[in-house]
Design a protein that fits this description.
The structure holds 2 protein chains of 2 kinds.
Chain A (H helix, E strand, L loop, with lengths): L2 E5 L2 E4 L4 E8 L8 E6 L5 E7 L6 E3 L7 E6 L4 E6 L8 E8 L7 E4 L3 E6 L1
Parallel strand pairs in A: 2-11
Antiparallel strand pairs in A: 1-3, 3-8, 4-5, 4-9, 5-6, 7-8, 9-10, 9-11
Chain B lengths: L3 E4 L2 E4 L5 E7 L7 E6 L6 E5 L3 E2 L7 E6 L2 E6 L9 E6 L6 E2 L3 E5 L1
Parallel strand pairs in B: 2-11
Antiparallel strand pairs in B: 1-3, 3-8, 4-5, 4-9, 5-6, 7-8, 9-10, 9-11
Classes of the chains: A mainly beta, B mainly beta.
Chain lengths: 120, 107
Amino acid sequence: EVLLVESGGGLVQAGGSLRLSCAASGFTFSNYAMTWVRQAPGKGLEWVSSIGGSVTNTNYADSVQGRFTISRDNSKDSLFLQMNSLRAEDTAVYYCVKGGGYGTYYFDYWGQGTLVTVSS
Amino acid sequence: EIVVTQSPATLSLSPGERATLSCRASQSVNNYLVWYQQKPGQAPRLLIYDASSRATGIPARFSGSGSGTDFTLTISSLEPEDFAVYYCQQRRNWPLTFGGGTRVEIK
């Protein structure tokens, strides 16, 4: 069974930092691209960042470029999102999601999400 | 950036009725269009990928069609558990983009 368990969310002041983690199990982690998707309260889904299975390619939404860094540790089946210079508009539930196939970016498994609240 | 637009914003239907949801991309995404379902308090669930391929475990009443810029998600006969919000997503180009969602509510 595929499981994705996020942690690291919480309340932080504007300008602060947080590091989200996602522990993956039930599949060969290194074979799949991984992604962070967020959802502001009462709003729709927003893609944040993706990383390929081999770690060599990363992509970011313009809204987080230069402030967020995605990374992974394939030896520990873990995905991370380092978030710096946080803004009120970064307040959202952050989902860790698994790519559906090798190198593909549709999302077949989602974690339960971790809430990040940025106070201004 | 490819803008993805969903319509209608809200669809009010009764159980047993047919639901037709639309998703339009601002430029061609070939068939790289994905549909998700989200219920309150839950993470989204993958329904359809690459425009028309049903994900594992998705009932046959859900079907997807379209290519290029215009896509449709059809629910042939609504079950009580199908009342939810549906999102489409293009994976043709970076940045990946989602539509704003269609809420299917009980009439």
